[in-house]
Design brief:
The complex is a heterodimer of chains A (288) and B (674). Chain A folds into 2 domains: 4-176, Bira Bifunctional Protein, Domain 2 (BirA Bifunctional Protein, domain 2, 2-Layer Sandwich); 205-287, Methane Monooxygenase Hydroxylase, Chain G, domain 1. Helices cover 44% and strands 23% of the residues of chain A. Chain A is built from 8 helices and 10 strands. In chain A, strand 5 (123-132) and strand 6 form a beta hairpin. With 674 residues, chain B is an alpha+beta fold. In chain B, 50% of the residues lie in helices and 14% in strands. In chain B, helix 13 packs antiparallel against helix 14 (403-411), helix 20 (527-535) packs across helix 21 (541-554) and helix 23 (593-614) packs parallel to helix 26 (646-663). The chains are: A alpha+beta (288), B alpha+beta (674). At the A-B interface, strand 4, strand 5, strand 6 and helix 8 of A face strand 9 and helix 8 of B.
């Protein structure tokens, strides 16, 4: 039996062999691996970049108190960036499925159109959702824009949904039943986590504190930008984003304010992206 | 005669891109070929997710030499200029011909071999495709990246480059069952790729799929997924899965939507009822059992989600859902869905009153309006957006609402697409119109009206829906009043309008009336007749349509020609004398018998005209208007409008203007061809 951690190790080994720098999850809450600066910022500018990493995806509004078999306020994505995208990029990706024990001819694997957009990151791309026997296992995207800036050369992003993939490979119907490591299930590790965080996200989180935090982090991001520190500013923007997600889960965002919150985060992301790129162009060309 | 084979190998193209390519490629190829001066026997195009193939049979081996004459310098030009011209075109100076003092070079030209003409044809086809959405990659811009290119004339590769790839004869077969395959000549193309497990022709794939589905029983495709499925596979194999019968206890459209939306499965019907089976089209596999098991798991998950959401929704109830609407935003800047519901209810009430709907219908419309958007916060609709309306009707019935209310909730989204079915009940029709008019009014007021091809709120479809319903049901629509009411309510809610209400209302009315035109064109009304009818200024689809039809029926008659001429004279004279026109008409200034007669006829006609128009009897209106013509003609024959006395002149101009206005109620007839 391939455990959940075996599957992750196999992906790490595969992408390491493909020349990816194996990053670690980011220390600040993100809704998707795309928001990790190893993707969002590194896809900008002309320098080549290959990375792969596990990212916990924190989505307060998806919590179900651990009672739903496949919806959680925290799950794991496996994120890969190849920039520039090689000509045999689909074959390379398919190789990673073989690396976790999938027989490509035996299954029905398909690339079905799906286009991706992130309003808070000012990012979009075209690509597919990869289907295996009718199940979506990976989001495969050619980044066209990030932070409102054209991505050139075009980078490709793969985002694997690790829970779905693991459940399928282990033949279990609930993520909670997946074997994480010998003698340890996914549920042993995260079931209680889901219950507590769902309760916190939906019932306990202090909304006036969160609203204040949003404003504070936004102001701090602006100060960092003025001080020429886009990386520090980006962390502040991510904190804004998470505060907004919590406020939203608490149903504390009035309809009329919602779009304005999203715009505020996007404005920060775009300012960070521009500042980051300016610094790259100014100081770092020599070691590219 | 040589044959040409071109295969453009792509990463998986979306189905819509396959459709666009299949619509555009034949004419792109033909244009390229004729621009190259060639004429083939036959051109074929085969389209699928990983390859666009062009086959041109019976091409000439070369473009024949063409004699050309090139104009040179004047005959008396300096020697050096004459020699230079001759040298440039590779002829001797003696061979230049002189005509009317100018030298000409006579060039015999040389034949151009087919292989040097082909690259431009191929590049023209690739570059000429206009996809509605494209992406960049390092090779260029296309619907998805191009990864290989086969270009062959008979057995020989035509070397060339396009979109960052170099031509060859190596193609890719089925991604997992085929592998690389060397292509032969054009005539064996379909068989060559078939040997690598690819059915390249979309028509053939469709036939295979339909035959496979038919062999499994009676299948249905209410959401129209088959055309897309044809472009999701290269080696179709129809497989069958099962699901637990208990999901058949859900309202029938729920499992159907779980199967069809996203997954593109085909439900099976037995004895008129849904069976616990589904059909789907796989792209081939060495172990169909594994594929079936996987798809069954996916469907079970979706059905389980649906059943869970349905149960939760029933527990919550439609009233509680309704109460949540103040937390859901509608069009940005217009407030919440709760605000929209209030506007739609007000519009529906006004509409019902205007229709003089009976008390039961009015009550049903108002109740349905209140509940119409509740299902947008239901679990079921958040899982399956296609169930909006239907879910609401199910929950309304469950809460004990009347069938009329439930039906109106379900019908108010109709027509879902152009030519789609229209609300069957009067309450549903009124609610559908109120909802769509509100969306249009709000979008226009907030500056979110469609621009060019961008129509993010689907306003053209909404307007076409309003037109289709009003014409079918002969609805009396105070369109400007309805739009005005919606805008007024936005203002009362303190919304920040991006445009002034006085601009919004006529713009939005005009936008809806624009959608009447395709309907009328389909009924044989000419563009000029539509324009003339629009000029009458009737601000709703029904009178506009009926006037346009009356003008069509009257086309070519002498009566209409006379009416048009009389109207045209009035319009031109009134326009010319506009600056001198009296502000009000004074019958005391009339002197001539012919002008008194016109005045008397106008008074009599005005009322009759208004009456015919009110009844929308434009045949009657046209004949009443035509009755005025002799008096108009006599007036112009006997009376000089431009009288030396400015008071008399101004007054006559005013009367002519009034006649033109009266006649315009049967159309701005100047728009009709003479």
């Amino acid at each position: 039996m391939q455990t959940y951690q075996d599957m992750i190790s196999a992906l790490q080994a595969f992408w390491q062999a493909e020349g990816c720098a194996i990053m670690q999850p980011y220390h600040t809450e993100v809704g998707a691996g795309t928001s990790n600066p190893a993707t969002f910022l590194r896809v900008l500018g002309p320098r080549p970049w290959r990375t792969a990493y596990v990212e916990p995806s924190i989505r307060p509004d998806d919590g179900r108190y651990g009672e739903n078999p496949y919806r959680f306020q925290q799950f794991f994505q496996y994120q890969v960036i190849l920039k520039p995208a090689p000509a045999d990029v689909q074959d390379v990706y398919l190789g990673s499925l073989q690396a976790i024990g999938i027989d490509l001819a035996e299954h029905d694997i398909r690339f079905v159109e799906d286009n991706w957009e992130s309003p808070t990151l000012g990012a979009w791309g075209l690509g597919w959702e990869v289907w295996m026997d009718g199940m979506e296992i990976t989001q495969f995207t050619y980044f066209q824009q990030a932070g409102g800036i054209e991505v050139d050369p075009v980078a490709v992003e793969f985002t694997y949904g690790l829970e779905r993939l693991g459940m399928y490979l282990q033949g279990v119907k609930r993520a909670q039943d997946m074997i994480w490591a010998p003698g340890v299930t996914w549920g042993d590790v995260y079931e209680e986590n889901e219950r507590q965080f769902s309760t916190y996200n939906y019932e306990v989180a202090d909304t006036s504190m969160l609203a204040r935090h949003f404003d504070d982090h936004e102001a701090e991001a602006r100060r960092c930008l003025e001080a020429g520190l886009p990386l520090a500013a980006y962390d502040q923007a991510l904190k804004c984003s998470h505060a907004f997600n919590l406020l939203d889960a608490r149903r504390a965002v009035a309809v009329t304010d919602r779009a304005a919150y999203i715009l505020r985060v996007r404005a920060l992301s775009q300012a960070v992206a521009r500042a980051y790129l300016d610094q790259q162009a100014g100081g770092g060309e020599g070691d590219a | 005669m040589p044959d040409l084979l071109v295969e453009i190998g792509c990463e998986e193209l979306p189905a819509w891109a396959c459709d666009e390519a299949s619509a555009q490629l034949p004419s792109l190829v033909e244009r390229g070929i004729s621009a190259a001066g060639l004429a083939p026997d036959e051109t074929r195009v085969h389209v699928g997710p990983r390859r666009l193939a062009l086959i041109v049979l019976g091409l000439p081996a070369q473009r024949p030499a063409e004699r050309r004459e090139v104009r040179g310098p004047r005959a008396d030009a300096p020697e050096a200029a004459r020699a230079g011209f001759a040298r440039k075109h590779g002829v001797s100076a003696d061979a230049l011909e002189e005509r009317d003092g100018t030298l000409w070079a006579m060039l015999e030209g040389s034949a151009t071999p087919l292989e040097s003409l082909v690259p431009d044809i191929v590049r023209g086809a690739i570059g000429g495709l206009q996809f509605s959405k494209t992406m960049r990659w390092d090779g260029g811009r296309f619907a998805r990246p191009i990864r290989w290119l086969v270009v062959k004339i008979d057995d020989a590769v035509v070397p060339m480059e396009a979109a960052g790839v170099t031509s060859g004869e190596l193609s890719q077969g089925h991604r997992f069952l085929g592998g690389p395959v060397r292509l032969g000549a054009a005539r064996s193309y379909l068989e060559d790729v078939r040997s690598a497990r690819v059915v390249a022709d979309a028509g053939e794939r469709r036939e295979l799929i339909e035959a496979g589905l038919d062999s499994c029983g009676e299948w249905i495709d209410p959401m129209g997924k088959l055309p897309e499925v044809v472009h999701l596979v290269e080696w179709p194999a129809v497989l069958e899965g099962r699901f637990d019968e208990r999901y058949l206890e859900l309202p029938p459209r729920v499992p159907v939507t779980a199967m069809q939306s996203h997954q593109r499965y085909f439900p099976v019907v037995e004895a008129g009822r849904l069976a616990p089976r589904f059909l789907f089209v796989s792209n081939g596999s060495t172990d169909p059992g594994v594929v079936v098991a996987g798809n069954q798991d996916v469907l079970m998950g979706r059905l389980e989600d649906a059943a869970f959401a349905y149960g939760r929704d029933l527990d919550l109830g439609i009233e509680a859902m309704s109460a949540e609407l103040d937390r859901v935003s509608f069009l940005e800047g217009s407030g919440s869905l709760a605000d929209k519901v209030q506007r739609v209810a007000a519009l529906a009430a006004q509409l019902a009153e205007r229709q003089e709907a009976d008390a039961a219908t009015r009550a049903a419309v108002l109740r349905a309006a209140q509940l119409s958007k509740a299902d947008l916060v239901s679990g079921l609709v958040s899982e399956f957006a296609d169930l909006q309306g239907y879910a609401g009707s199910v929950y309304a019935r469950h809460a004990g609402e009347d069938d009329a209310v439930a039906d109106a909730i379900e019908e108010h989204h109709q027509p879902v697409e152009a030519g789609g079915s229209l609300p069957a009940s009067e309450a549903g029709a009124l609610l559908a119109v109120a909802d769509k008019v509100d969306t249009i009014a709000v979008a226009f007021a907030l500056g979110a009206q469609p621009t060019g091809s961008r129509d993010p709120y689907g306003l053209r479809r909404a307007a076409a829906g309003v037109v289709a319903i009003t014409l079918e049901r002969q609805l009396e629509l105070g369109l400007a009043e309805l739009i005005g009411l919606a805008v007024q309510m936005l203002v009362a809610d303190g919304r920040d309008l991006k445009r002034r209400p006085l601009e919004v209302v006529p713009d939005a009315v005009g936008f809806v009336l624009d959608r009447v035109e395709p309907v009328l064109t389909g009924e044989g009304v000419s563009v000029e007749e539509i324009r003339a009818a629009r000029g009458a200024g009737h601000g709703a689809p029904l009178p506009l349509a009926e006037l346009a039809r009356a003008l069509r029926d009257e086309r070519g008659s002498e009566r209409l020609a006379a009416l048009r001429d009389a109207y045209g004279r009035c319009v031109r004279i009134a326009a010319k004398g506009e600056s001198e026109m009296a502000p009000t008409f004074d019958s005391g200034l009339l002197r001539d018998p012919a002008e008194r007669e016109l005045y008397a006829s106008l008074q009599a006609t005005d009322e009759q005209l208004a009456d015919c128009v009110a009844r929308r009897d434009f045949g009657c209106a046209l004949s009443v208007a035509a009755d005025l013509v002799p008096a108009v003609n006599r007036f112009f024959d006997d009376v000089l409008v431009m009288d030396p006395d400015p008071a008399v002149r101004g007054n006559r101009l005013k009367m002519v203007h009034n006649v033109a206005s009266a006649l315009r109620s049967v159309g701005d007839l100047d728009q009709l061809p003479g």
